[in-house]
Amino acid sequence: MSKEKIDWNNALKPDDVNMNLRELEIEESHTITFLKVTQTASGAIVASVDSETLEGDTLWLRSPKYGGQNGLGSLLAQVEFNGDEIEGNDFVITKVVSEESPVGYAYKWAKV
Question: Global pTM?
Answer without folding.
Answer: 0.83
